Amino acid sequence: MTDQEFVRFLQDVLPHMGLKWAGFRKVRGTVRRRVKRRLRELTISDLDAYRDYIDRSPEEWSRLQAMCRIPISRFFRDRKVFRLLGETVLPSRAEAALKAGRSNIRCLCIGCASGEEPYSINLVWLTSVVRQYTYLKLDILAVDAEETMLERARAGCYNESSLKEVPREIRETAFEQADSEFRLRAAYRNGVRFELCDVRENMPSEPFDIVFCRNLAFTYFSDIVQRGFLEQIDDRLRPGGYLVIGGHERLPCEGTRYRPLRPPVPIYQKVECLRAGALAPAD
Number of folded domains in the chain? Predict the structure, then answer.
């Protein structure tokens, strides 16, 4: 298949899955390789025949959706986000929890892949924040639509390349070498729970103080799905809570109740109301 043929194929099938072509421009090569392997498995000759196969076999849509997922993750990815998490976001939500008489802070990580992001949040809490709030607990719910990714996350073992942005003192304290990999010690995995979940179909319903959704919904979901998805987040995020997105993403802006915390870092705080014309998610 040529690249042009594959682009036309993606432009045809992505809207049927609530996805948009623009998000796949730079990663289409990865998806293309997966689709080529799938065609060989099915002994299908070309994309037109595969499109006919999908129409005759609706269960193939789930397989195609899985091939379109692009998990890219490492510890402390975008260090500015995690610096601000430790300096402002977690202390702010800790103070709000204490004021409300709660004993915990709740965080949701959407599209957690193999666990580096939720574990990074936990490491920030345990190494730089918890000593100020010893009576509070950070509960992290991390969800992904791929069970194989969640199995890797629960094991907590990673290649050295995944740790390249981990501060040296944290790496030496929180990780132990296991053969050719590095295992996050059990004490630093406590408080992180992993669940299988496709958030387009079944969003966790608990109230949360912080929601991480980076490089997923606001990159790959179609515009209409994005707006509905943000509404679901809004229903679950406490007033004053924080939404963290990817560095190259934007929120669906019209009528949003989220203001950038410290541009250009992609962290937004939920506010009760904004005066007319005060909307301004940052570029």
Answer: 2
Task: Verify that 87 and 57 share a domain, yes or no.
Answer: no
In this structure, the answer to whether residues 124 and 21 fall within a common structural domain is no
Specify whether 103 is located in the same domain as 63. no
Q: What is the pTM of this model?
A: 0.87
Q: Residue 60: which of 51, 48, 47 has the closest Cα?
A: 51
List the domain range (segments joined by +) for residue 29: 3-67
> Does residue 255 have a pLDDT over 60?
no
Per-residue pLDDT of 163-190, as tens digits, reads: 999 999 999 999 999 888 999 999 999 9
Given 47, 67, 87, the domain boundary residue is 67
